[in-house]
Amino acid sequence: MRIACVHQGYELYGSDRSFAESVAALRAAYPLADIEVVLPRPGPILSLLEGKASRVSFEPIWVLRRQALLRLATSGLARLPRALMRAARRLRENDLVYINTSVVTDYTLAAHFFPNKALLHIHEIPEGAARTILRALARWSRAEIIFNSQATRAAFSLHPSTRTHVIYNGVTGPAAPEPVTYDGVRPLRVLMLGRISRIKGQEVLLEAVAALPPELRTRIELRLVGSAFESEERERALPALVAAMGLTGQVSVEPFVSDPSSLYRWADIVAVPSRRPESLGRVAIEAMAFGRPPVVSAIGGLTEVVRDGRSGWLVPPGDAAALSARLRTIIEDPMAWRGFAAAGRARYEALFSERAAMAAIGAVAGAKLFQPDGGSAIRATVHAKTVHTTMDAS
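Structure (tokenized):
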């Protein structure tokens, strides 16, 4: 059995970790398979693929990124025919090609000619022109599609005849949640993890902290952890904003770390103040796994992760005043949310654990590999069972 897994990244952010977990799921389901991972370049993600991939190949991948649209539409077009040939060859030579995210344009286009072999996993909620383009690509591909949330599937609104599944990302968490120690006496420890960008909402969180009364502002410690994607200017601008808002004593800005476990252990709560729709919300899931209630924007897949008032809190996106008011109640009444940690951990184990996602992805891949109508030379019986997946088929 030959399986190829294609990913557009190479770092250790959420999409990279989700891809590595999908590769692990395929390895667990098919331990004897030859699994080739295709990446655009070497990077930190390789540490997560050890023992899972049979080999890793590096090649140019035609990725549709918003900040590179002009270049892709001009000089980048010259590279597309060769990229399509590489993608078609890999689709032809493998029994299954797992394509991670819809922005991997060359493989999504080539999948149209090998629909029985392509499995497209979509993790993003595009907007505006990007949504139109990526929806058209997904339709053109004729691939079977996995969405990481109901919100993501709704954003693409594909024809009912398209075979789709919803499988929540499986997240590796600690064996047990961390104890809750906040008692309202010491400062509340707030953590925000994520790329530095306007979409993620670092500025909204800073405005919320700045809006607290002075006596409450001193009772909060905020750590903003993350880096900008190939933009030193954004990375310099965030600490400057913290200083300009007079929050240097309460807020620290720290670079991306590959293992955030110690950060979750430090935190009391985790903030995900996204301005635009998150397709799911990996940081919120990780927070619940560690027993750290998340306060998140009520938008996109985040509303599927957090149960408001039970495992965390939902606030209107981009509303610094509402977020500030929520932080105030969290600081002043810690007993009101004492049970959130246990509820969040239980929700994580039921819906978002690595075990649940691995079983579901393995089953979907198996149904495709062993489909009776051809597309793969393999014939076998599928023993995997789909867990926590919603399937739509005409």
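The chain has a mean pLDDT of 90. Residues 2-170+353-392 form a domain with the Rossmann fold fold (CATH 3.40.50.2000).
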